[in-house]
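Subgroup meeting minutes
Present: P.N., E.W., G.H.
Scribe: E.W.

1. P.N. recapped why we're keeping a running log of single-chain structure predictions: easier to compare across weeks, and new members can see raw inputs and outputs side by side.
2. G.H. added today's entry (558 aa).
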Amino acid sequence: MAKMTALCYNFLLITAICVIKEVKCAGEPHIIIIIADDLGWNDVSYHGSSQIMTPNIDCLAYNGIILNSHYVQPSGSATRAALLTGKYPIKLGMQGESIKPGVPVGLPDGKILPEYLKDIGYATHFVGKWNLGQSRWNDTPTHRGFDHHFGFFNGWTSYYDYLTTVTVNGKEYTGFDLRRDTQPAWDLSGQYATDIFTTYATDTIQQHDVARPLFMVISHLAAHAANPSKSLEAPQESIDKFGHIIDSGRRTYAGMVSKIDDSVGAIVSSLEQKGIFDNTVILFISDGGAASVGEIGNRNFGSNYPFKGIKGSLWEGGVRSVAFISSQLFLQRGRVSTDLIHVTDWLPTILSAANSEVNLFDLDIDGVDLWSSLNYNFDTTRRSTLINIDEKNRNAALILSSFKLIVGSTLNGSYDDYFGESGEENLQPISYNSSAVFNSLVGQTITKLSYQPTNEFEYESLRNLATIKCEGSDGKHPCDLSDGGICLFNLAKDPCEQDNMINMLPSLVRQMKRKIVEYREGLIEQFEMIPNIEESDPKKFQYAWNPWKECVDALCTA
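Output recorded in log:
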């Protein structure tokens, strides 16, 4: 009854907004998910650093709900799998590293988010990075519930020429990786990735028939590193905006992040022009922490400050992601939430927002429906979350209430440290520009359309609430994860994981270890990421990365 009441109220609220604003709205909201790739916690300016200003992102976050305790997976493929299935990756065999080019692995069969939404009339589009399999056409977006796909199959590609290079047994294999649905988009070589994905997204919005609800995932390449020869790329005019940044690599990275911010502004402006912004839910997340350090070709110079660890680790810097959700439909917005949220929660939450008649209790998922919690600022029902269990690397992490247990290290402890700039390493001091936020494309849209916009004077208060500050550790309780070590942290008091409490709360440690063991019983052994390079070699497919288990004549020469 409570569920039905909430759904009816949502429908009445949407209808009222449509009538008052004289816009054409479907009964269900339009849903946009924007995924940034390896965007660091400290690389959006609403988290406290002014080094990289992100005015459009900040404004949309301030007028929505900033999600300060949002968790993803250590790898991009795992995060995407969790998002679309609502399941922990250990139940899919996807808890390990991301899928590499030529590897015959894909998201296991089973109904995923776009298919549920298509059942209730949504038009579904996927833009950008897929990274959930390409050995068969059945693994690719247009065979997994999306009406259209414009983007690339693999985990990375170059920002201008769309060539993806992988080294196998000392030999390089290179292929083109950009498609309109199933066909390579050779004609777009030379145009910047973030720009073409944004243009496709805005064109799709403008051409959309508003009689149908729209579901679109915009999965950016940025700010992931590309090929080693050209790992970081951005238009020079974007890089030049950050002359105050000393390090040239981070300066280019800042230009890449700035283009994501421009994209957010353009998408919101397009929704406003179409007359559907009032009836749209926009979710923005990063698929993981920044790769602050690492080999050339992997490092992107992002910053997870003040958190410990980087992409690929179980530390907060690797798995606590930038995230917010924004919609004029929310009754309680303009706030910072510290509720525990896991990326699996978005499947049931989006289905609830879309008024799907699917009984969520009948689904074999790990996600929790947060829609009422977000809309009305109720307490969530999530009290714990599994971060991951990696049986090969022999590590795991679990959060229970405000406590986090980590078992085992990553890459022999090479990620067990603090990396990334604080934002103060500049050629000159940089102040937060709240006027730029207020006057951004998002700011202009919200000022024009919102009934209760968050004003410029409230930005600083929300920014302070969204900024994580850590006091220095006295060093008395260090954490040592070597040789299967175990560490416990109270994230409410110690979000930077400096004070190991493993010897202070033995009963809690036992309880959390039992939960990990229980999860371990349902684990499916992770896929072997061994490339089948002889069969998948792009030379056989007109020098494009292509599904090789099912050959399409127009794309095959073999």
